[in-house]
Specification:
The chain is built from 23 helices and 21 strands. By secondary structure, the chain is of the alpha/beta class. It folds into 3 domains: 161 residues, Rossmann fold; 75 residues, no CATH class; 222 residues, P-loop containing nucleotide triphosphate hydrolases (Rossmann fold), CATH 3.40.50.300. It has a 6-stranded mixed sheet, with helices on both faces. A 6-stranded mixed sheet has the order 17-18-19-14-20-21, with helices on both faces. A hairpin with a 2-residue loop joins strand 10 and strand 11. The longest helix has 18 residues.
Amino acid sequence: MNPATSNLISVQDLQVSFRLGKGHIVPALHGVSFDIPLNSTVALVGESGSGKSVSAMSIVQLLPENAVVAEHSRILYQGTNLLTASAQEMRKLRGKDISVVFQEPMSSLNPVFTVGEQIAEVLRIHLHMNARQALDRALELMTEVGIPNPRQRLGAYPHELSGGQQQRVMIAMAIACEPRLLIADEPTTALDVTVQRQITDLIARLQQRKNMSVLFISHDLGLVGEIASQVVVMRHGVVRESADVHAIFNRPQDAYTRALIACRPSLDTRPHRLPVIDDFVVGTPLPTQQRLTAPAAGEALMTVRGLRKDYRLKKGLWGHSVFAAVRQADFSLHKGRTLGVVGESGSGKTTLGMMLTRLTDATQGSIEFDGKDLARLSADQMRAYRSRIQIIFQNPYASLNPRFTVGQILAEPMRIHAPTTSSAERTRRTLSLLDKVGLPQDAFGKYPHEFSGGQRQRIAIARALSMQPEIIVCDESVSALDVSVQATVLNLLLDLQQELGLAYVFISHDLAVVKYMADDMLVMHQGEIVERGLAQEIYRNPQHVYTQQLLQAIPRGLGPRTESLVRSS
């Protein structure tokens, strides 16, 4: 067979730049080339800013208006250069021949239309079905993508569905016209590990059942190894390596590819430090010494007993019901140790963390810390303890004041909780904090938007350290970061723990990260702690069925499904 005819899409020397005003042009892609074969899954892998999404959106001409595509670049589909296709021609292709599933379904779904209406709209536009036919087919599609009670959900609005169900609706819309190419742009990044597994399994089944091609975009090589047959690794707008999935995992040729694989915490090892991209660039020897955990000794820093949080939900005009977000939580936290808290969305782990910091008040139970029950303290009494228990949130940009400089952000907690400190002393301590978290001193006068996501999270960590806390609650604090940036932040947290004796409550749905960080562990399910103990023991021998399901869902790179995909491709 002619190689040209075996490819559904051929991207050739794609160069894209962006105009940023005043004649300033920033290049994004530097001659990117790759092929998407018929009936196969190709993964685009790389960190934020590598050019993955720009490459994918070029295929469907969904780049912003300030994008400039080089005249010699070509994206061939059935002999047609999509880059020169008219707007009318692209409208016919989008949704019918080529469909896209985006990362955040809530920003893609229309909140004022039911999900059934939104799926039916695609069918009416491209297949010219009438309203009844379109709704009947929408019901079939919702059943096909595994949405529970599909007939009932047909009339639901997006906000009434879970994140995983919303993403299934997006997939149903994308496959409605049986496209030849499905572009999945980070479709599982914000989802729990079990829901992530369900979505990737669904995409893989649909790909094989419908004989379509898939372009799967991700920064997680472990996930990619379980779904793709071909992998294209990108960095700074350049293809660094392109090969079948076996070669990428077993014989990676590029140092950057090896770094992406190694930066991800492993389920098999627990080194003292995670390798980062720069280690591979400069040839630093990889860490081999393993970190072991002994049972906690000595008196607990914090003891939690019978902690519960109820929410009153309206039920009709006069009645109400009670929803228990957390029920009967009991555990201890020790100085210099990390307590990992895992579970799916809605399991109660974030509510638990918020109660420990008193950002949410408990319905009942006790939080004993330094001889006091924090759950019983008034707001004024609690103020003296807030500096000793800090929290780092998932999204640093949303939790940092955009109108404050970094210097003001770090000095503000000192000004509030230690008003007797002088301005000069606050400045000195702020500069010391920047140094401690690995940021240059000129960051002092800059604003949050001038930093990358990883740097903003360092600022959030520095702010949490500004009052010299004893306990820090990390609420999904690395889940939004690329694997290499994530490794840097995790190393920083461990360095600070060793230096300052900090106790962490590390909340995450990423079980590989928790295995690396945690000494002790709680597994939460529907508001209850279903398993507890030393983290390494739980991972080695999980007792509860729910824990076993969570561990089985962790992406492990090459899996049986990938083996069959590679053999059939």
